[in-house]
Amino acid sequence: MIEKNYQPADIEARMSVVWEDSLAFKAGRPDRRDAVPFTIVIPPPNVTGSLHMGHALNNTLQDILCRFERMRGRDVLWQPGTDHAGIATQMVVERQLMERQQPGRREMGREKFLERVWQWKAESGDTIINQLKRLGASCDWSRERFTMDEGLSKAVVKVFVELHRDGLIYKDKRLVNWDTKLLTAISDLEVQQTEVRGNLWYLRYPIEGKTFNPEDPTTFIVVATTRPETMLGDTGVAVHPEDERYQKLVGKNVILPLVGRKIKIVADEYSDPEKGSGAVKVTPAHDFNDFEVGNRHGLRRISVLDKEGFLDLLDNEDYLKGLPEGASQFAEEFNKVDRFAARKRIVERLESFGFVERIEPHTHMVPHGDRSNSVIEPYLTDQWYVDAKTLAKPAIAAVRSGETSFVPKNWEKTYFEWMENIQPWCISRQLWWGHQIPAWYGPDGRVFVAQTEEEAVSHALGYYVEQEVITAEQGREMALDRNKREGFITRDEDVLDTWFSSALWPFSTLGWPEDAPEVKRYYPTNVLVTGWDIIFFWVARMMMMGLHFMKEAPFSTVYIHRLVRDEKGAKMSKSKGNVIDPLNLIDEYGADALRFALAREAAHTHDIKLSSQLVEINRNFATKLWNACRFAEMNDCVLPEGFEPAKANEPLNRWIAHETAQATREVTEALEAHSFNEAASAMYRFVLNVYCDWYVELAKPALLGADGPLRVETRAMVAWARDEILKLLHPFMPFITEELWEVTAKRDGLLALAPWPLKPSGPTPEQLAMLAAAAGPTDPLISPALVMPIFDHADFADPKAEAEIGWVIDLVTQIRSVRAEMNIPPATLTALVLVGASTETRERAPRWIDVIKRMARLSDISFADRAPDGAVQLLVRGEVAALPLKGVIDVAAESTRLDKEIGKADADIKRAESKLANEKFVANAAEEVVEEEREKREAALARKAKLLEALERLKQAS
C-alpha cells in the first residue's frame, strides 16, 4: 500500500539497503555472463573531498547511463574509487597535527608520518563514497579502488620503469609552478589566476658604450615589467624583429641596472610592439615565456630566488658569474630578502639612480596556489618529466580517426589545440604522501630506475664494480648485507604527480599489469563523463597511457558536461557565498529531485543555473508521480498476466499505448546520443502532461463507472503505462521508482534489473558487424544476442486514436488558454459552438462532451454552420470552435489591460537590447550578466507575442 505522503528520506535509506543486499550493481553477475559489457570508470574524487555540485552532476549523468544500459541487458561495470590527492591529503594531516599540538611531519619522520596518513585515510577517507551512495550512484562498490592500493601502485611502478627505459621519462632542469609555502612543484590545475591591482614599472636600461642620461633617450632602452625584483636575473632584452624603433639596437648590449651585468638585445616575435614600450626584459629562470625566448637565443638562466621566495644572491654562482667588481656588495645587502619586500627596495634604488621612467597602475592576473593561496613562482629546478609530445601523437590520431569521439564534438578542437602544443609533463612532487619515485642514486649521482630496491641495488653494484669504484668483494658484501650499503645508494625522496597514477585508472583498476580476466572483458571502457576543465590533465593523459600500454584508446566516447552555476549564472565560490551544498538539497527535497533537476538542465550548449526552487519543482514532479500511482492503486489498477496493450479496444487506451511508445523512443534515442536534458525533459512532459494531466483525467469516467470490459481494460492500461513510466524514469529517479515498483507493480525482482520498456526487435546488421569487429571471431565473453535493442513501435501506432484524443486535448487546451488570456474567472462557465463540424467530429464529440465541459469549464456544447457574433474563433486541427464571449468579458477594459502589458513588454525589450547593443557592456560585464540580459530580452519577446495574439482574439469578440 502506498503511503499517503511522499517522504524521500525514508525511501532512500530503505532502497539503498535493498540494492546493496541484492548485489544489484555487481558486474559479472551470473545472469549477465553472456551479456555485452558496458564500462564506465568514475573520475576518482579526492579521498579528502566531500560531495559538491560538480560531483553531483557528474555522477548523476554516469548513473543515468549505467542504469539505462543495465536495464538494456548489458553487463555493467561502473568502477568506483578515490584518488590519494597528494597535496590535499598531506595538508589535512599536517593541519591535524598542528591543531593537536603534535610533532610536525619533519620531526616525526617520513615513515611515521605516512603511518598517520594511512590512519587518517582509514578513519575518514570514505566520506565522499558514502555521499555518492546517498546520491544513488549504482557503482559496483565491491570493486572500489584507491590510487595507492597495492595493485595500482604496482601498475604505477611498472609504467614509470618502462617509460624511463624507453626514454619517455627523463630528468631535466626546467621551469615549474612552484609553491613557496608548500615547497613543491604543482600542476596547472592547482594554480588559480587571481586578478590583482598592481603597477607596471617602465625601467631605463643603459645601452653599452653610451653615458647614461635619463634625459637622453638615445642612451637607454625602456622595458616594462610587473616584477622588478626578478630583473636581477635578466639575461636579455627582447624587441620585435619588425619594430623599426629598435632594429639598429638588435645584437648590442645593455647594462643591467644595479647589477652591472651585460645582457644582449635580441629580436623575437614574443615582444609586442603595441604593448608597453615594445621592449621586454627576458628572465629565463623566472617566467615561462622568457624561458622559451631564452632557449631560442641561447640566453643564460639565472635563478635569483630560493625555494621559499627569498632573494638568493650571495652564494649563487650563476648570479655572481660575470659581474663587475663591487657588485657583491649589492648581493650582500639584498640576500635573503623576501621577494615582495625586495620589490619595494629595488624600485626605490632604481628611482634614486634615475632608472625609473614612470609607474602606471596595472591590473593583471597573478597565479596563486589553490590550497596555500601563496603567489606561485616560476622556479627553475630539476624535476622528472614525461615526453608528452611523443605520447600525444597516437592520442591525437585516435580522436582524428574516430576511435574516440567527444560529445559535444566542439571539444575536440580544444583537445587538438592543447595536444598539438603539449609541453613536457612534470611528474615529480616534493611531498611524502604519494607514489615514491622508483629511482635510486649512487654516490656519484648516477640514477638507477627499477621496480624494487633490490633490483636497483643489483644494477648499481654491478655498474660500480665494473667502473672499479668498488671491488667485486665489496659488491658481494653490500648485496648480502643492507647495513654495509647504507648511504651508498639512496632513493629519490619525491613522489609522483597524482595525475600520473590516475592516468592509468581505466586499466589499473581492472587488475593490470596482471593477466586479469577483467582487463580483457571491461577494457576499453565505453564512456567517460567529465568536466571540460580536466580534458588536459586527465582525459589526455589517460588517452596517452591507455594507447601506449594497452594499444587501444581507454574509451570510445568522452562526454563533456558544463558547469553548475548559481541561479543568476555566477560561478559558485566560497568567497562569493553562493555555494550550494548538494547534501542540503538532498536532505530537503530528496536525491531524486536533485538528480532530475540536474539532468533536465544538462544541455550541451550552456551551463546549469541551479537554485533550490528548481529542485523543489522537480520534487513536486515526484509528488505528482507518487499521487498518480496512489490514485491507480486506489482504483484497483493492476496489470493482469499476459496483458497486451497493442490489443486494447478503447481509443483512449490505444492512444496512451502510442504515446508511451513514442516517449520510450524519444528517451532511448536521447540517452544514446547523451542528450540527458532532452531525455529528462521528454519524461517530464510525458509523465506530467500526457499521463497525469490527460490520460488519468480522461480515464476517470471509465475507472469510476460501472463494471464492464471498458473498466477492466482501462484499469489494466493505467497500470501498464504506470509500469512503463517507472522503467523509463528509473535511470533519472531511482529511489522513488524502485519504491513504487516494489509496492504497486508487484513484480518479482528489482526495477534496477528489469528490462527496458518494449520488446526489442533485435540488433541491426550494422550493430552485429560492429560487435563482431570489437569482440573478434572467437571471443567467448560476448554474445550478440544481448546487444543494445532496437525498439519496434509498429504495434502501438494508431492514427485514428491519436486523432480523436488529440482533438479533445487540443480543444480543451486552446479553450483554457483563451480563458486565461481574457481573465475569465474559473467560476464563469462559457458556451462552445463547433462550427461546420466534420462527420468525425460530430461522431466523437458526444463521447467526450461531459469530459470537455468539465475540463474546459463549459456550460454547453453545440453545433452550428457559422460562428455566433462576438465569438472568439479557435482553429482546432483544421476545424473552427467558437467561444461566444459577448457579455462575458468587458472587451474595452480587457483591451486596455492588454495594451498596457504590451507596453511593459516593449520597455523590457528596449532596456535589454540597449544593454546588449553596448559593446563596452558586452565586453566588460561578467558572462552570466550578459546571458541574463539575453534571457530577459527573449522572455519579453515571447511575452509580447502572446499578448498580441490575445489582443487579436479580443477583436473577434468586439
Furnish the topology, listing elements before pairings:
Elements: H1 8-21, E1 37-41, H2 53-71, E2 75-79, E3 81-82, H3 86-99, H4 105-108, H5 110-124, H6 127-135, E4 145-146, H7 150-165, E5 169-179, E6 184-186, E7 191-206, E8 220-225, E9 236-239, E10 253-255, E11 262-267, E12 279-282, H8 288-297, H9 317-320, H10 327-334, H11 339-352, E13 356-369, E14 377-386, H12 388-401, E15 405-407, H13 411-420, E16 425-426, E17 428-429, E18 439-441, E19 447-449, H14 453-466, H15 472-480, E20 490-491, E21 495-496, H16 498-502, H17 505-508, H18 517-522, E22 525-531, H19 535-550, E23 555-561, E24 564-565, H20 582-589, H21 591-601, E25 608-609, H22 612-634, H23 651-672, H24 676-704, H25 709-729, H26 734-745, H27 765-775, H28 799-821, E26 830-835, H29 839-856, E27 858-864, E28 871-876, E29 879-884, H30 891-916, H31 919-924, H32 927-957
Parallel strand pairs: 1-2, 3-4, 9-11, 15-23, 22-23, 24-25, 26-27
Antiparallel strand pairs: 5-6, 5-14, 7-8, 7-13, 9-12, 10-11, 14-16, 17-21, 18-19, 18-20, 26-29, 28-29
Helix pairs in contact: 1-26, 2-21, 12-13, 12-19, 14-15, 20-21, 21-22, 21-24, 22-24, 23-24, 23-25, 23-28, 24-25, 25-26, 28-29, 30-32
Domain Valyl-tRNA synthetase tRNA-binding arm: 890-955
EC number: 6.1.1.9
GO molecular function: aminoacyl-tRNA deacylase activity; ATP binding; valine-tRNA ligase activity
